[in-house]
Write a structure and sequence with these properties.
Chain lengths: 451, 220
C-alpha cells in the first residue's frame, strides 16, 4: 500500500468533489489544448502548402490576397497579369518551373483552377525537408490532356458525386448567388480524381488553363469582347462579379481582333490570374521577388510562406495569445479550486491524519500523500482536458476541412502543449502546498481528542 | 518496558500533569484507572510520544523518548506502539484489510509482500475473516473495535495503548472485546496499558495504576 494508493482512496472517498475539481481543471486544459493544437496544425498545414511554391506573381494589389487566392484557394484573386509577363518569367534564370493560374469559375462551390498538366505532374517536395508531397497524386483516371477535361479533388468527388466520365458545367464566380451564369454550352468532362491529400487541392477542380479561355470564348463570342481592355490593372474585377475580361484572358486576345489563328500575337494579349513559380533554390526567394517587383511594373510578387507567416503573426498570433491567456486564467481558477477542495478535505480529515501519524506516518509522508492528491486531481484534469480538447479540435477541424480543405491531425501533442501541461501540473502541485502544510502541522494529540 | 520518572507537563493555565514514578514491565497488563480529567489520557500521550514532557524522563524499552526528534518518535510509534481508541479511529476510505495493512505501512517491521497475508491472518484471529473487504461504515461497532485490535498488533508491537476500548460497546460486546484483547496481548507477550474510568474493567487486568490526581492545579 503506497502513498499513491492512500491518496487515491481519499480522492475516491469524496468522488463528487474530486470529479468537480477535475472538471474545472479539464475545462482550462481543453481550451488550451484546442487553441494550441488548432494553431499549430493549421499553421503547419498552411506552411507546408506555402513551401510548395517559392514565389507567386499576380496583379498589383494585396500580396496576402494573391497568396491566399492562388495557393490556398481562399478569397478573391487580385486581378490579372499579361501572359507575356508569364512567358518572361518562365525564361528568368532562377526559375526552375513556372505554372500559369487561371481562376474565375466554380462548380457547386468548388473552385476551378486553370493550369498546366505539368503542374500536376511536377515532382512536388517540401522545399525545406525535401520530403515528397503527394498533393497531386492521381487516384482514378489520369491528368487532363486537353481543354475541357477536368481533374477533381478527393473532397469534390465525394461531395459532388462526380465520377470519371461525368460532365459538368462551370459557373461564373466562386459562389452561386442564384443569378450566376452557367457555361452549359462548354461542359467539362471528369478524366481524373486526385487522392485525398488534406490540402486545399482536395476541394479544387484542376483544368487546362486554356479551358477558361475556351469556355468564355464560346459564350461571349469574339465580337462581344471588342471592348475589353488588355491592361491588367484596368481589367481587375472582383471574382464574385466574375470579370469575363480580366479573368479570362482569351477575351483580350479577341479585343485585339486577332483571333486564334495568330497564336503568337494571341498569347501576347492573353491574361492570367497569376503565375506560381518554383525557383532553383528557396534561398533565392526574396531577392527574386524584389527583382520581379522592380522589373515587372504591372505585377506584384509574393513569397507565399512569408505572407502566410506574417498573416499568422499579425492576426492569428494575437488571437492565439488571447485564447491561451484565457486558458491559463481558467487554469488559475481551477488551481484555486484544487486548493480549496484539498484544504477543506484536510480540515475534514484532521483526525485521519492524526491517526496515520499515531500509526507511525512521518510528517513527510503526510505531506507527500496530500501533494499526491493534488497531483492526481491535476493529472486526471489534464487527461480529461486533453481528451475534451481533442474532441473539440476534431469538431473544429472537420469544419475547417469542409471549408478550406485543411485537415487537422488532432492526435499529435506539440512541444507547446507539453510545456503548457507541465505548467498546469506545477500549478496544481503549488495549489496542494498550503493544504499539505496544514497537514504537516498536524497536532496529533489534540486531533486525537479522546486519547 | 515503560518507565516514567518525575515527569511534568503543563496542560493549561495553572494545571499540570505530574507523575513521579510509573513502571510497567515487559508483557505487563496495566489498567490506568481513574475518574475523567484525572490525567490518564495525558499519561498515554506522554508514553506514546504524542506529547512531550516539560521535564522528567520517559523510558520505552530503555530508550529515553523525551530526547528523541519528531522523526524518531514517529518511527518509535510505528514500530513499538499499537493504538486502540474508544471511537475505533479506523480510516473510513479503507477496507478492514487495508486498515490493518496501514498499521504495517508506516513501519519497517515487516516486508511489504507479507502485509496482506499477515493482515488476513490477524483479521481471521479476531473473527473477521468474512469482513476483509468491508469498509468501517458498514461494520458494527464491535467489528470495528476488533479491526482496531488487529491493527494495533500488526507490527509485532511491544506496547499496546488502549483508551477506553470498550467505552462505545454494549456490555456483551465489551466483554468479548476485552477477552480478545487480553488474550492476544498475552499470546504476543505485549505490554498492555489500558485507560478506563470503569473499575470493573480495570479489575479484569492483573495490574492497576491509580491515576487520580496526576493532573492537578499548581501555583502559577
Amino acid at each position: 500500500m503506497t502513498l499513491w494508493h492512500i491518496a487515491w482512496n481519499y480522492l475516491w472517498n469524496r468522488k463528487l468533489t474530486t470529479f468537480l475539481t477535475i472538471v474545472s481543471v479539464a475545462l482550462g486544459v481543453a481550451l488550451i489544448t484546442s487553441v494550441l493544437l488548432l494553431h499549430y496544425e493549421t499553421e503547419k498545414r498552411f506552411v507546408e502548402e506555402g513551401q510548395s511554391f517559392d514565389v507567386a506573381v499576380g496583379a498589383k494589389g494585396s500580396t496576402q490576397q494573391l497568396v491566399l487566392s492562388t495557393v490556398y484557394f481562399i478569397g478573391q484573386p487580385t486581378g490579372t497579369i499579361q501572359y507575356s509577363d508569364f512567358e518572361r518569367l518562365q525564361k528568368e534564370e532562377e526559375v526552375l518551373a513556372a505554372f500559369p493560374i487561371n481562376m474565375g469559375d466554380s462548380y457547386q462551390g468548388f473552385r476551378i483552377v486553370g493550369t498546366t498538366r505539368e503542374m500536376l505532374e511536377f515532382n512536388w517536395v517540401n522545399r525545406v525537408t525535401e520530403e515528397r508531397r503527394g498533393t497531386f497524386d492521381i487516384d482514378q483516371g489520369d491528368y487532363f490532356a486537353k481543354p475541357l477535361e477536368a481533374v477533381i479533388g478527393a473532397a469534390v468527388a465525394i461531395e459532388s458525386q462526380l465520377r470519371i466520365g461525368d460532365e459538368f458545367a462551370s459557373m461564373h464566380g466562386f459562389a452561386d448567388m442564384g443569378f450566376s451564369e452557367h457555361h452549359d454550352a462548354k461542359p467539362y468532362k471528369v478524366v481524373g480524381i486526385l487522392k485525398a491529400s488534406a490540402t486545399p487541392n482536395d476541394r479544387a477542380i484542376f483544368v487546362d488553363y486554356n479551358s477558361i479561355y475556351e469556355v468564355h470564348d464560346d459564350e461571349y463570342g469574339t465580337p462581344s469582347l471588342s471592348g475589353a481592355e488588355s491592361a491588367p490593372g484596368a481589367n481587375y474585377k472582383s471574382g464574385e462579379e466574375h470579370s469575363e475580361v480580366g479573368e479570362h484572358a482569351e477575351e483580350a486576345d479577341h479585343a485585339a481582333g486577332e483571333g486564334h489563328a495568330d497564336e503568337e500575337h494571341g498569347h501576347a494579349h492573353k491574361q492570367l490570374t497569376a503565375a506560381l513559380l518554383v525557383l532553383e533554390s528557396p534561398a533565392q526567394r526574396f531577392e527574386f521577388k524584389q527583382r520581379i517587383i522592380n522589373d515587372y511594373p504591372n505585377a506584384v510578387a509574393a513569397v507565399p510562406i512569408d505572407e502566410i507567416q506574417q498573416l499568422y503573426n499579425q492576426l492569428l498570433g494575437t488571437a492565439r495569445q488571447v485564447m491561451v491567456y484565457i486558458g491559463f486564467l481558467v487554469m488559475v481558477i481551477s488551481s484555486i479550486s484544487i486548493l480549496i477542495g484539498l484544504y477543506l478535505s484536510i480540515i475534514q480529515r484532521k483526525r485521519d491524519l492524526a491517526i496515520m501519524r499515531a500509526l507511525g506516518a512521518t510528517s513527510g509522508e503526510i505531506v507527500g500523500s496530500v501533494l499526491i492528491e493534488a497531483f492526481w486531481v491535476t493529472l486526471l484534469g489534464i487527461l480529461a482536458g486533453y481528451a475534451s480538447g481533442l474532441a473539440l479540435t476534431w469538431g473544429i477541424g472537420s469544419f475547417l476541412a469542409s471549408k478550406i480543405g485543411f485537415e487537422v491531425s488532432v492526435f499529435r501533442p506539440t512541444a507547446d502543449m507539453i510545456s503548457a501541461y507541465s505548467a498546469i501540473l506545477i500549478m496544481g502541485m503549488i495549489a496542494g502546498i498550503l493544504p499539505a502544510w496544514q497537514a504537516y502541522r498536524t497536532d496529533i494529540a489534540r486531533d486525537l481528542a479522546e486519547l | 518496558m515503560v518507565i516514567l520518572e518525575k515527569v511534568r507537563r503543563k496542560l493549561g493555565p495553572g494545571v499540570e500533569f505530574i507523575c513521579d514514578e510509573f513502571h510497567a514491565p515487559e508483557g505487563a497488563q496495566v489498567a490506568l484507572w481513574g475518574p475523567s480529567g484525572c490525567g490518564k489520557s495525558t499519561m498515554l500521550n506522554l508514553i506514546s510520544g504524542l506529547l512531550r514532557p516539560n521535564s522528567g524522563v520517559i523510558r520505552v524499552d530503555g530508550l529515553e523518548t523525551q530526547r528523541m526528534s519528531n522523526g524518531q518518535l514517529d518511527r518509535l510509534r510505528g514500530e513499538r506502539f499499537g493504538f486502540i481508541f474508544q471511537t475505533f479511529n479506523l480510516l473510513a476510505p479503507f477496507t478492514a484489510l487495508q486498515n490493518v495493512m496501514l498499521g504495517m505501512r508506516f513501519s519497517d517491521t515487516r516486508p511489504s509482500k507479507e502485509w496482506r497475508a499477515h493482515a488476513i491472518h490477524l483479521l481471521e484471529r479476531v473473527g473477521l475473516a468474512h469482513r476483509l473487504n468491508s469498509k468501517p461504515g458498514t461494520m458494527s461497532v464491535g467489528e470495528r473495535q476488533r479491526v482496531a485490535i488487529a491493527r494495533a498488533l500488526a507490527n509485532r508491537q511491544r506496547i499496546v495503548v488502549a483508551d477506553e476500548p470498550t467505552g462505545s460497546l454494549d456490555p456483551k460486546t465489551a466483554a468479548s472485546v476485552m477477552d480478545l484483547l487480553l488474550e492476544l496481548c498475552r499470546e504476543n507477550k505485549v505490554t498492555l496499558l489500558l485507560v478506563t474510568h470503569d473499575q470493573s474493567i480495570a479489575n479484569q487486568l492483573p495490574e492497576r495504576f491509580d491515576c487520580t490526581g496526576l493532573a492537578r492545579e499548581t501555583a502559577q
